[in-house]
Known about the structure:
The complex is a heterodimer. By secondary structure, chain A is of the alpha+beta class.
Amino acid sequence: xxxxxxxxxxxxxxxxxxxxxxxxxxxxxxxxxxxxxxxxxxxxxxxxxxxxxxxxxxxxxxxxxxxxxxxxxxxxxxxxxxxxxxxxxxxxxxxxxxxxxxxxxxxxxxxxxxxxxxxxxxxxxxxxxxxxxxxxxxxxxxxxxxxxxxxxxxxxxxxxxxxxxxxxxxxxxxxxxxxxxxxxxxxxxxxxxxxxxxxxxxxxxxxxxxxxxxxxxxxxxxxxxxxxxxxxxxxxxxxxxxxxxxxxxxxxxxxxxxxxxxxxx
Amino acid sequence: xxxxxxxxxxxxxxxxxxxxxxxxxxxxxxxxxxxxxxxxxxxxxxxxxxxxxxxxxxxxxxxxxxxxxxxxxxxxxxxxxxxxxxxxxxxxxxxxxxxxxxxxxxxxxxxxxxxxxxxxxxxxxxxxxxxxxxxxxxxxxxxxxxxxxxxxxxxxxxxxxxxxxxxxxxxxxxxxxxxxxxxxxxxxxxxxxxxxxxxxxxxxxxxxxxxxxxxxxxxxxxxxxxxxxxxxxxxxxxxxxxxxxxxxxxxxxxxxxxxxxxxxxxxxxxxxxxxxxxxxxxxxxxxxxxxxxxxxxxxxxxxxxxxxxxxxxxxxxxxxxxxxxxxxxxxxxxxxxxxxxxxxxxxxxxxxxxxxxxxxxxxxxxxxxxxxxxxxxxxxxxxxxxxxxxxxxxxxxxxxxxxxxxxxxxxxxxxxxxxxxxxxxxxxxxxxxxxxxxxxxxxxxxxxxxxxxxxxxxxxxxxxxxxxxxxxxxxxxxxxxxxxxxxxxxxxxxxxxxxxxxxxxxxxxxxxxxxxxxxxxxxxxxxxxxxxxxxxxxxxxxxxxxxxxxxxxxxxxxxxxxxxxxxxxxxxxxxxxxxxxxxxxxxxxxxxxxxxxxxxxxxxxxxxxxxxxxxx
Lengths: 265, 616
């Protein structure tokens, strides 16, 4: 354990924790946009900045990737931190004035409108989609492309991705709704990445429910027993319920109890 | 042939020296990039042909060498043993040089350098003011060696330092010597090299790496290029010593692909060193092994930043990572990695061979040794200069650089590349070292030094550098990506005469946030050109914003060209020169510029011999 102080409160934090984790455990909120507990820290939005004091010197660092250190003094809301955070969110608000999460955060910091000319981007370049695709799915189907203000997220060469499995993890982590997917004629389409993948039909109800590649990916990880005949979630639930009910009925019967009327248990 | 020991090396050196014929005239032709642009390859070809033609192969030996430094005067050739320097040599001068100077031992006055101050012709290289005040400990070998020949380097004592380190010193002793020397990283940060090595050596891990950062990208800077092109073995030798000290068995030279000659020379150097057994297994029979590979950079400025460079080496897009855990502990492939810049590595053999005490004799309290600067911009003697740390700016600009051309006034000196700052003329007596430059708001950077004259608009300069950085910011972190863009937008407005009250305050606020919260040093230092011009030339911003005037006459939207009637003699030169037919007037009577038609190119003003046309 490492002994540190956050906003005057002393705390022992595990050695592999970041300042952000230690603060969270203390119930101290630090705003973040590019952080996700399931993904490695990236440090791009800079909103989680805090002021640290080390050997008498002050410094602004990002709490999401700064490891706790013995004797560290942390201030999550000092005057310079608040000034910089406000400027950062104002800069971001000018980039994407219509993005809800950014607007809300800006409003909380007292900014209704940015002083800078407004652009209309829906992506805040937090990189959650890129990281989840790499670190959790292992597909590496998308990446950052271009540099500086022209930066964007795309599949290689901005054409349909061969590596994408159509799992939709990018859609689910995207905090702004910039990535969407839709099912059209047996295909799952990720329009932002110009990618479409073949959907699999549930053998029971004949509904399209996941891509072939996604099911194969799950199959690889769970082994053949894990895939209950490649059923869709609804049918899987029905089948589970049925087998549970059956097992329950058998158990009751074995224990000599009266069968119960009605469904479920 | 393998060099197994220090004795083998010495034997080879003596054999090589014995081969040189002291009676021969040795002609050294600069084939650095600057002189190549001036046509040095044709000059070399002419020499080769003419020597055969005149049948004097036995009397003359020619060599194409690396950069001599005095790029303003290319193609440069030096004739030894006398040390005669001929400048601006063209292929057609070659027959005469061979007949008159080599054959007849007479000087060709026409090809000598003329000192603009005294008007005198100077015969010998060592007497030329440009070279006189320099201390060329790193660049000094360039004019004597063919960079594609390892033997040339060995003949001058090359690889002796590596032999000494590997056979007579322990790695700890090497680290201690470099620490003692006070050498600081020449790539920009100025971090003490020895300390860096020590941390890397002590960092836990099974494998570790050394990297040479040759991804030089500052506009107007070419120090590292000239070193790697002109003396690649000195860099390689430094890396061998460093790798031994740190305990690394793998090394990389990360060099930009836009430096084809540097890539080629470094590649050959590695091949030749490997052949002699100076790379590979069991170097100098010490059981130490090192392999060095070349990685070519794709041209992104950000890849000069150490963590971005390492990410790029790993095969990913070159983007920086947080360095809260330093790269010396967790760098390339998460292993301890020591990265130094070209010039830093080239200093190492000197320190090991001559000792830390010798090295410490040059420089100031906090900055030891020499520093190479590329002196460019509005300066008479454009070129590469190597000076002791602490030399006053005045000595560099006027003593070595020969001052500002066309009798114009010096306005500012920009040091440290796009991340550096602009220093005003009032700081001309500043001793140039790491700490002094930082104190006045600029930085050493890798050694770019751009001289600006009175016709430079400082708001425009800040705009230029921010425009460069806008294109080169990787885009990963918000403050650098969005902040630079917004600062540039405001500066563009100011230069277009649309500046508003409060713009400067807003600029300062953005700058402060970008500086403090950016992920890497590119963003952290990006506001420097803006902040230093604001600090030293604040009145120019006021003139732009409040008075809608550009005092230097550069910002097109804020100036009007007019002809002074009393000065104009009606010669008509401007009428002919104007590309938009905006000037009219009768012969021998004062002319006039039609403002609506004028595109403000300034050609008329440059053409006018009466200096009757000015921007205001």
